Prior knowledge:
By secondary structure, chain A is α+β, with helices and mostly antiparallel strands.
Amino acid sequence: MLGRVNHIAIAVPDLAAAVASYRDVLGARVTEPQALPQHGVTVVFVELPNTKVELLEPLGDASPIAAFLQKAPGGGMHHVCYEVDDILAARDRLAAGGARVLGDGNPKIGAHGKPVLFLHPKDFFGTLIELEEV
Amino acid sequence: MLGRVNHIAIAVPDLAAAVASYRDVLGARVTEPQALPQHGVTVVFVELPNTKVELLEPLGDASPIAAFLQKAPGGGMHHVCYEVDDILAARDRLAAGGARVLGDGNPKIGAHGKPVLFLHPKDFFGTLIELEEV
């Protein structure tokens, strides 16, 4: 069921500083910041040859990463996103396996305009997993 | 400087349970467990089309992931490993950029038999970064 790792998401308190670090110190290619107010984040992608790192900074008062950064003010790895062919089939397989889908259990349109689901980190050893239909 | 994401490492308290979850619930291909006593871990790789997830369980009394699991008993994302062409050039670039290399600053032979460095997570927004020469 799991396909490619679409991205590894890292929550950061200061996107400009994180961009400078990945671009100038680590020598990676980074995209321009993209504000996604409907998702409560500003995003920069670090483009690697085989996948991406998504740097996330909170945007607005109801950012979904605000609570994470309260617990880890310096930032940290937030989730791993895997591609799936069929997100409804994925949801049904997960339900049959006893894994909990966050929210109402139905796919939402994610930050990249594709249907996504998030899985409960307690069901996957502390890792928040996003599934994205591609 | 940064090349491919070689792997995403996840520390888990129970490798057999994690293997069952990734294989049976998420439908991924996993390798046989490999005990690496000199590195203090038992490892399973989850093989995705473009990269790998490395599931790590502590092995022995001096496991480098024991402290992590004391803070996060259920497990969690532990580090991201990027490939580099020349690890000594990488080390010099990082030093010039003010980033701290863990240990004595010199590459060690990592769990895959290749020279590796680990970078201080406080210099990279809470993410422990491993660089591996390939």
